[in-house]
């Protein structure tokens, strides 16, 4: 009985693969779903299930549904925590959503599993400056919000944040404030 279900699940997966090649992503998703529904939750079918989740993630990636891509990859990785393809696809989806830190994290996991992985190494080179730029932007936005908040409080006393000068210490990276009239 379980063997029959496994054969049926594998046939659905192969049909999904055929549809994917024909760029029929929605139909392929449905076939991978059938495979997941009939595949018994047994150790013998765990590889098939993790592959189906990852294949579903690629369909979602092609359809531009990046949140769904991430969810499917995460399901695949719950079954097989060392599935490099799932980390690759999830990293791609994170990058599309500008979740650069998360994408970097996935690439680092790939390199822990396979130090010679070219995809992960090249992705890291591309992602690091994007993540740094995003961090800098967030920092600037935060400083602007703090200035607005400071001005709303200081305005009651006839002052503004412009009365305070901040100087960054190049050695420590910390700031010192001084008051100016």
UniProtKB/TrEMBL annotation:
Family matches, as InterPro entries: TPR-like_helical_dom_sf, TPR_domain_protein, TPR_rpt
Ranges occupied by TPR repeats: 50-83, 84-117
Keywords from the UniProt entry: TPR repeat
Leader sequence residues: none
PROSITE patterns: TPR
Designated name of the protein: Tetratricopeptide repeat protein 1
């Amino acid at each position: 009985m379980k063997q029959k279900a496994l054969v049926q699940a594998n046939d659905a997966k192969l049909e999904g693969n055929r549809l994917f090649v024909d760029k029929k992503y929605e139909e392929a998703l449905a076939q991978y779903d059938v495979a997941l529904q009939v595949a018994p939750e047994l150790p013998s079918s765990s590889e098939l299930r993790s592959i189906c989740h990852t294949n579903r993630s690629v369909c979602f990636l092609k359809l531009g549904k990046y949140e769904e891509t991430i969810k499917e990859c995460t399901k695949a990785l719950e079954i097989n925590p060392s599935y490099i393809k799932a980390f690759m696809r999830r990293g791609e989806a994170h990058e599309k959503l500008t979740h650069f830190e998360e994408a970097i994290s996935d690439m680092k996991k790939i390199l822990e599993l396979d130090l010679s992985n070219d995809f992960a190494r090249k992705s890291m080179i591309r992602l690091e400056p994007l993540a740094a730029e995003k961090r800098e932007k967030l920092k600037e936005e935060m400083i602007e919000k703090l200035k607005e908040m400071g001005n709303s409080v200081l305005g009651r006393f006839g002052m503004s944040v412009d009365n305070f000068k901040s100087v960054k210490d190049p050695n420590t990276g910390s700031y010192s404030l001084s008051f100016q009239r």
